[in-house]
Amino acid sequence: MFHENGPSVEKSLVIAKLSKLREYIGFLKELQTVSMEDLVNDFKIRGAVERYLQVSIECMIDVGNEIISSLQLQRPERYKDIPYILLQAKLSDLNAFIKYIVEWLERRSPQANQE
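Structure (tokenized):
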């Protein structure tokens, strides 16, 4: 994926985005201990959860777009197309990452998939 011959992915961008994603997921895991009642009633907690979900999704989208762009793959029409394009490219070293993106996007609300 980071080959010197032909198109290559900007390794530093991908590493930075994945590092941030790991950090955001850690924050979300900490927030799992919050009760549903507190989540619904406390705007600060709800806002933190929403924000960390949003920036996590943005990180995954950015990494997917970087890979697609760098490898000159089919341009996605929608964000939810990104993992499918990567799967079609048969980039085996990305399988775990792609599966993670697919599962994440499938859990999103229908409104979010209309971007």
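The two ends are 28 Å apart (CA to CA). Residues 11-114 form one domain.
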